[in-house]
Amino acid sequence: MNNKNIKNITIKEIKQLVKESQFMTTGVLSKFTQRKDRNDKPFWDITLSDKSGDLDAKIWGGSTWWSLLDGDEVPIDPINSELKFPGAVVSVLGKTSEFREQLQYNISDLYYLDQSENPKESYMRRSPISDEELESGFRNLLEQVSEPVRKFLQHVFFERNLWEKFKVYPAAISIHHAYVGGLLEHSLSVASLGLEIAKHYDVFKVPVNKDLVIAGGLLHDIGKLYAYNNVPISQMSLNGSLVGHVSLGYEKFMQFAESQNLDSRFVTAISHIIISHHGKPEFGSPVTPMMPEALVVSAADNLDFQLNYWRCQIEDLNPQSDMTEYLPLLERKFWRGFPDYNLQP
User: Fold this and answer.
1) Other CB atoms closer than 10 Å to residue 257's CB: what's the count?
2) Which of 90, 94, 240, 322 has the fewest CB atoms within 10 Å, measured from its CB?
3) What is the pLDDT of residue 2?
4) Structural contact between residues 104 and 97, judged by C-beta atoms closer than 8 angstroms
C-alpha cells in the first residue's frame, strides 16, 4: 500500500476525528451492500468492524479496489471479481466529510488482504469482561438455584453441549452486546439483576420465585443460538429471520423440558418468561408478562439492553461532544452525563 505517511488507526480513533480528516484502518467487512445512486451508478454501504467498534461507511463509484493476495497491488473490479467481500478482512483508506450536519466516512481505496495471514478472529470485538469472570459468574448463579432446576440448567448448557456456542455468541447482530461473549454477558447480567430485584421485593412482601428468575434470565435468549449464524461475523439465520429468537427459544425450551420430564408448573412459568420477555407484541413478544418473575426478567432485559447501548454509544462519542445523535430505536439521544460528579464539597 502506497500510503506510508498515513498511520493505521482503530475504528474508535477514527470516530474521534473531525471532518476533512484522512484515515487508514483494517478490519472485517461485517456488512457489504451494493446499491445504486440517482444516476444509476453503483456504490456500497459497508460496516467495518475491529475490536474497538464498528464503522458505517460508503464506497462511492470512483473509489479504487486492490488485491494484495500475491504481495503486489493488483487492481480489481468489485462487481465482477470472484473475491468474497462480506466477512473479509480488508484495509481501507478514507476521509471524513459532513452530510446533513453529521460526519460521514467515505472510502477512497480498499485493499483485499490475504485472509490466511489476517484471521477474522483477530479483529472481532469481545466482551469487556473476561471469559473466566463470565463463566465463574454463570456457575455461581447455578449454585444459588435449588434442585431440580439446577440439574435442568446443567443439562441444557453442558450435557447438550450448548456451552461452547453460548459463551461466544453475541446477544444481537447490532446495537447491544453485539460482540463475542455478548450473549453470555447479557444473560448473566439479566439473571443477576433479576435476582437482586427479587431480593428487593422480599422486603416489600411481593413474592418472587428466585429459581424462576435465575432460570428465566439465563434461558430467555436461548433462541439466539438458533437465530444467528456465528461464522465468525454473526449473521441472521433463515429461521432467525422467519421465526425470530423469541419463538425459537420457546420451541427449544419445550423440547429440552420434555426430554427431562419436568414439573408442568415449572415448564409453564419458564415458557411464559421466554415468550414474554420483550414486554409487548410490537417489540416481538406474543404475550405480555403476566406474573412477577416474567415482569422482573423483562424489566432486567430491557434495562441491560439500554445501559449496554448507552455504554457503546458513549465509548464511540467524540470527546468534544456530550450528546449522541438521535437514536431512532429508542427515540432519544444519549447524554454522557457527569462522569466525575461528586456530592462532596
Assistant:
1) 19
2) 322
3) 58
4) yes
d(CA 249, CA 222): 5
Report the pLDDT value the prediction gives residue 234, as an integer from 0 to 100: 76
CA atoms within 13 A on the CB side of 149: 22
Q: What is the pLDDT of residue 274?
A: 98
Question: Are residues 232 and 179 in contact, defined by beta-carbon separation less than 8 angstroms?
Answer: no
151 membership: H or E segment, kind and range = helix 149-154
- Listed in sequence order, the residues at least 6 apart from 306 whose beta carbon sits closer than 8 Å to its beta carbon are 330
Distance (Å, whole) CA 135 – CA 37: 48
Classify 11 as helix, strand or coil: helix
Residues in the chain, pLDDT under 50: none
Please tell me the distance from the alpha carbon of residue 179 to that of residue 190, in angstroms, as a whole number: 17
Q: Is-contact 278 298, C-beta < 8 A? A: yes
Q: What is the pTM of this model?
A: 0.84
Q: What are 49-91's pLDDT values in tens digits? A: 999 888 999 999 889 999 999 888 999 999 999 999 988 999 9
Length of the chain: 345
Question: Where do the H-state alpha helices sit in 228-291?
Answer: 238-242, 245-260, 264-276
Angle between helical axes of 210-219 and 292-316 (0-180°, round to 10): 50
With vertex at residue 142, the alpha carbon angle to CA 138 and CA 148, rounded to the nearest 5 degrees, is 150
